[in-house]
Design brief:
The protein is α/β, with parallel strands linked by helices and 369 residues long. It has one domain: Glycosidases (TIM Barrel, Alpha-Beta Barrel). 36% of the residues lie in helices and 11% in strands. A nine-stranded parallel β-sheet has the order 7-6-5-4-3-2-1-9-8. Helix 1 runs parallel beside helix 12 and helix 10 runs parallel beside helix 12. The radius of gyration is 22 Å and the shape is globular.
């Protein structure tokens, strides 16, 4: 048998400081979920340890990585299992269906901003293919919930300076907008129509786009209720307020949180403070969560239908997250109206012993006895 791994002097020193700070935290019984995003943390299941020993009671993984064996293992650990489901970012679909590519204001296929390839939200074949797979995941696996991911327009926003082109102005979208909003449009080239839609018809256009994306959520809710009604429907979404970037949440990304709340159980805002230009300000996390609670009328009290479970950044992506920030990040991530939290992302975090140890200490501290 190989010797047990030993922590370095540096790691021990870091943990001592974090643990001392964590001692100042108290139990947070309102936090029902303490989770990880990114697959099974095998490294934590050594020497007979369980996820519960580490204060963890939930795991999120991509729907493509689900297997019956993995779900069973997590269930045996007493953890809830949640699937992440990609709605608008299956770029491979365009290989055989180029007509599903979003069209920009110039009437041409819009390049993928920062390599982020979205899909036209009104393409019927794409929508049917995603809904078929959504139903399959719920049918085949004993999951506790399923979270919509990448459910926004063709844009790259997971960064400090986002790139959010206006789309989609394909003939199908323009005709559907005209029909469903009873808006008469002249017979003119797409570039001129796009200018008209973003000008005199802007308010109707923005709302219609939001309604298209909300309608996807409505259908997902129906499938959940039909296939696995006890499962939660969640959504990973942009952490901005309704005024950030001149209201881009609605006008650029086509996200109407109040409308989606008719169908969604859990809102998992994504306040990646380091990635989004707030590396020195973990309190930005709780400010964004507080706005979301006020916007949706969620207080973080028992018995509420809607819940807020943010996903917070501990892994290095863009700006690094130092071990000293583990406590403040999880502190701000678990303040009401949040009643749950998950950590992004195990795939790279697993290699950082000090941060994993600090995370576990915080989870164990806030966990009710």
């Amino acid at each position: 048998m190989s010797p047990k791994p030993r922590l370095s002097v540096f790691v021990v020193a870091c943990l001592c400081g974090v643990f001392h700070s964590a001692a100042a935290l108290e139990e947070r019984p309102h936090v029902e979920v303490r989770g990880l995003y990114g697959g099974i943390p095998d490294e934590l299941l050594q020497a007979g340890k369980t996820l519960a020993d580490h204060g963890i009671n939930a795991v999120w993984m991509g729907s493509g990585g689900l297997t019956t064996q993995r779900v069973a293992l997590l269930k045996q650990q007493g953890a809830r299992v949640f699937a992440e489901f990609n709605t608008m970012h299956v770029a491979g679909y365009l290989k055989d269906h180029p007509d599903a590519a979003p069209i920009g204001v110039d009437g041409q296929v819009c390049p993928a901003p920062h390599g982020w390839q979205g899909i036209c939200p009104t393409h019927p074949g794409y929508r049917q293919s995603r809904m078929t797979d959504f139903r399959r995941v719920l049918r085949d696996f004993q999951i506790d919930g399923i979270w919509l991911d990448y459910h926004h327009s063709h844009a790259s926003w997971e960064r400090d300076v986002p790139d959010m082109p206006d789309t989609c102005f394909c003939p199908r979208c323009v005709a559907q907008f005209s029909r469903e909003t009873n808006t008469r449009l002249p017979d003119e080239p797409l570039p001129r129509l796009a200018k008209r839609l973003l000008g005199q018809h802007a308010e109707a256009w923005f709302q219609w786009r939001c309604d298209v994306f909300t309608n996807w959520v409505r259908e997902c809710r129906e499938i959940v209720d039909q296939t696995r009604p006890q499962a939660l429907l969640g959504t990973f979404h942009c952490p901005w307020t309704d005024t950030d970037f001149d209201g881009a949440l609605r006008t650029k990304l086509a996200i109407d949180l109040k409308a989606q709340a008719q169908y969604v159980d859990v809102f998992s805002t994504m306040p990646y403070h380091a990635r989004f230009g707030h590396a020195a300000d973990p309190a930005w996390i709780s400010r964004q969560t507080a706005w979301l609670g006020k916007h949706l009328g969620i207080r973080g009290e028992p018995g509420e239908r809607h819940k807020i479970w943010p996903i917070v950044q501990l892994a290095d992506w863009g700006e690094p997250v130092p071990v000293e920030q583990v406590l403040p990040v999880l502190d701000h991530g678990t303040r009401r109206p949040a009643t749950g939290v998950m950590v992004f992302a195990w795939g790279s975090l697993r290699k950082q012993q000090a941060k994993v140890g600090a995370m576990v200490e915080v989870f164990r501290t806030i966990k009710p006895d």
